[in-house]
Amino acid sequence: MDITRRLVVCGMVAAAIAAAPSSALADETDSQLVTGTAENMLALDVPSPTILAGFLPAQTAAASALVKLTSTSPTWTLSAKTDTNGHMAAAEEGCDHSTRELDAPLSLIVEPIVADPRITSTLRDLTSLDQTFASSTDMPVSSALFHASYTQPVRPTEVVEAGCVYSLTTTFTLS
Questions:
Q1: CA-to-CA distance for 88 and 158, rounded, in angstroms?
Q2: DSSP sequence for 34-46
Q3: Selection from 77, 80, 50, 66 nearest residue 172 by Cα
Q4: In the chain, at which residue ranges do the beta strands (DSSP E only) sit?
Q5: CB atoms within 10 A of CB 44
Q6: How far is Cα 127 from Cα 82, in angstroms, rounded to an integer?
Q7: Is residue 33 part of a domain?
Q8: What is the pLDDT of residues 114-157, one digit of tens each?
């Protein structure tokens, strides 16, 4: 008996709703908030190779390259190190009469193309240990361009044979 009553009541309610004029039903609206949260992202683009100009005894050779950084965090650090403790070494071939390794280390400074007091840049000699060359504690960057400027003093006593290639590899880390 309980089952019959329930069916009858349900049928009567359904019939009453179906019989109600459509103008009696009110439109319903609701809204939904849509949000997006930026995720932590780091990106680094370093071109290769960089070629020093003015590579002669008693001169300071120099080169500059563009480095592109992206950090969604306002706190970031760009560090660098080399594979040879910062001293450029002569190639095995074509350098028979050249100084094998230059006495002075290669120096580097990484500076934003558009100066900003929230970014700290430091000129340092490269070594085999990671060192900070640029950093910020208050500025996220998005595809920001930086100058990586290298200088290499060549002592007057160092012999650099024409055509001899000196090199080292700089490894950058953005964290």
A1: 12
A2: ----PPP-EEEE-
A3: 80
A4: 42-45, 59-71, 76-82, 89-90, 107-112, 119-121, 124-125, 131-136, 141-154, 166-167, 170-174
A5: 14
A6: 6
A7: no
A8: 999 999 999 999 999 999 999 999 999 998 999 999 999 999 99
- The residue range of the domain holding 129 is 42-174
> Phi/psi of residue 152, each to 5°?
-135, 105
Q: What are the respective helix, strand and coil percentages of the chain, to the nearest 5?
A: 10, 40, 50
Long-range contacts of 89-93 (CB under 8 A, 24+ apart): 89/166, 89/167, 89/168, 90/164, 90/165, 90/166, 91/164, 91/165, 91/166, 91/167
Instruction: Count up the domains in the chain and report the number.
Output: 1
Task: Specify the pTM.
Answer: 0.78
Q: Which residues pair with 60 in a beta bridge?
A: 153
User: Does residue 25 belong to any structural domain of this protein?
Assistant: no
